[in-house]
Design a protein that fits this description.
This protein is an alpha+beta fold. It has helices at residues 2-25, 35-43, 45-55, 88-101, 112-125, 135-151, 161-167, 210-227, 238-246, 248-259, 289-304, 322-336, 342-346, 349-362, and strands spanning 29-30, 60-62, 66-69, 109-111, 154-158, 173-176, 262-266, 269-273, 318-320, 366-370, 378-382, 391-393, 400-402. It is globular, with a radius of gyration of 24 Å.
Length: 403
Amino acid sequence: MRASKRADAEQWNERRRVCAHALLNRPWITKNGDPELFYWIKDQYTELRDWFSEYTGFPLHLTRTMAKLDKAPLVAQPWMGFEAFREVRDYTFFTYALWFLEGKTELDQFVLTDIVEQVSEQMASAGMTVDWENYQHRLSMVRALKQLRKLGVLVHIDGDETDWAHSGQQNVLYECDPTARYVLRHFPRAMGQYEELDEYQELIVYPDTAEGELRKRRHRVFRRLLLEPAVSDRDWHPDDLYYVITQRRAIMDNLQFMFGLEGSRYREGLFFFHPELSGECDLFPTAAALSDLALLFAGQLRRRLGERDWYVTDQGTIELTRTDVESIIYLLKNQYGDYWSKEHRTLGLGELAEALTVHMADWGLGAWTRSSEAGGGERFVVSAVLSRWNADYSLDDEETETG
């Protein structure tokens, strides 16, 4: 009987972790889309709601048909946007299209021209203009509508947005899903009360007391640890760093309990790792070939530290010029290029260096910065996090050894 109770408890804990990961990494979970997961969340709603409220400030909403965790990053990163969007205008149309959908019910049907007409009028009343004769403007609207379709809040019935983008004449028939009104997160204050852009990051209103300040700091720390790939000590505000250092055991225990994440304290910072090779979240190394190149880059950099005038700072970082980055890639290309994809074999060193450094920056493994020295130019600061990896191609050409 004791063994059976332990098995039941472990199953309950595993289900809670599955729910927590899904809530953190999906826009929402619907009853129709994933009924089993929806009911798991419903069964453990109180515990999930209380944990996220206590440690992150993220409110958990549960309705008859969906569950959603309202998330907001403390530090916005370029990769947090919609990958398909190309212009700021895309986000503008996305937001105004949501405004249009909030006035619709589940049974309403409407066409694309209804959306563009009302969006145009609403934007004009706010002092903004849009020209639907402009092909680029139509393309932006198409990207916004396709993103709404991808989220499932705009239901496509008939027609093709691409035809409208090309001609400006074709129409598309839609329906609205009830989840449309949950896309934008709820704010604790009226929008007109916010004066600075940074104020939109707040999730709740904290009392002006010592307890309120402590809770606010705890939320800041957990929000960054959960929504960013890696946060080194050098990236924390001094007050938050003090909390990370003094409360690291509690932080590690809580993230292990709710998400099963394994935390380790290094000289450079407190880092967390997913115990499995796959999961709800995007994991590094990714399936993209650029992740393999980043691991090879780490190994080559480690081997060449004694050969060049590069040095490791007290914070565990290494500063490289653009020429340094390209020289490392040149060596890797000569040594391992036969194993690479055709795309990466044919790219020039500059293009490959740009693609690699963007990928590394997205994962918190490095960032471009301007040197403080006169005439120092731009430097790529390799994060200490990268030193935790090394890679090479194995002798049998079949496996990659990492460590």
